[in-house]
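Input.
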Amino acid sequence: MNVLIFGKNGGVGGELIKQYLNNSVTCIGKKDINFNDNYCDELYRLLETVQPDIIINATGVFGDNDHSYDEIFNVNVKSNWNIISYYKKYPPNKIVKVIMLGSTAYDHGRKDYILY
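Output.
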């Protein structure tokens, strides 16, 4: 099974990587792809190259004063849309499972953060 995980540097992404160690895993972090730019070409090349069986998008940005609305929207929402748009444009010849996660520890020290 070929697994593509976005969010390799976060808590959720890091734990997911451990769960899929017996598979072919490609791990992508914020330094590997810039979700704030118009990155469709970069994302499309990645999906074409990796040809994953499972995509797990565990990337996310907190809604705090350090991040703009556009950054929060692009990473938390638009990234998922662009993954789905790729498969609409280039239907795969196999079933590809796409799992989109959002998380925050609202009750563990992040009380004033926006949930996504």
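The radius of gyration is 14 Å.
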